[in-house]
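Proteins fold reproducibly. Next comes a concrete instance:

***
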Amino acid sequence: MQASQGRSAGLGFALVSALAFGGSGVAAKPLIQVGLDPLHVVWLRVAGAALVLLPVAWRHRALVTRRPALLAGFGLLAVAGVQACYFAAISRIPVGVALLVEYLGPALLLGWVRFVQRRPVSRAAAVGVVLAVAGLACVVEVWSGMSFDAVGLLLALGAACCQVGYFVLSDHGSDGEEPADPFGVIAYGLLVGALVLTAVARPWDMDWSVLTGSAGMNGTDVPAVLLLGWIVLIATVAAYLTGVLAVRSLSPQVAGVVACLEAVIATVLAWVLLGEHLSLPQLLGGALVLVGAFIAQSSTPKKAVAAPVARGGEAAAGAGAGGAAGATPDARRSPLRER
């Protein structure tokens, strides 16, 4: 009975996290369209969330001396890199397309394991990657000569590459006799990301007056400060923390599969709130991407193999904009750990 309740709670946390992360682009794009630079929106998001989580950072201050490299890497890649590339991408291409391109992260990670580390991957994981890439080709409509902004697609691909760092750092965060507390890693990752983005985004040059006005969402004016509040409190703080709780309550594989809903939620919200309509081939391609991610993340290792098998489920336990921060003891048997 308790196990069933725990699983139900975990699924609830995973769904809330997917909904929160999926709404980040929809709330950010109107702010970008009314004059805020994408980097400034990222800085506001990360710095605001870091400020909210300062008490958590203080509670886990021992991490600064115990795992400095982990915190620095998480801040640079999982926070600053992913968010900056994603927000810059949605300023040039539709939100749903940017997020679906970002979902190549698990595929890139499996490619790293197979061709760089030269270790076998399961057949299901490979099939999932092929389906995801084929679906992506439909999403960007390669037959029409890449009708989307090339720079925007490259930025979304950059976010996918940073996701690889997400997964690797998530796995290493659970190493050692005293694994790094995921809440502490999130808090310090946001602090590091805020410091890096402060130097890059130069927020003192930002047009702060934009935040006192409103931004249009498909013809409806919404206070800019309300959109910012959603980005900071819901799409960052709540999304990261519920993602961690989901991975703790569920297996990494299940949490990763549920996180695939983030792309669906983002696309639907962009359609309803921003009027970003996707064609039928793009919708079918998006479905292929999600099916591929589902197969890869649900795959189990082959039997009787001499080397560890890369499994999409554990490699992509943190799928989405923040799930990798939630490394738990459940993820310690990930093949990435035996580098």
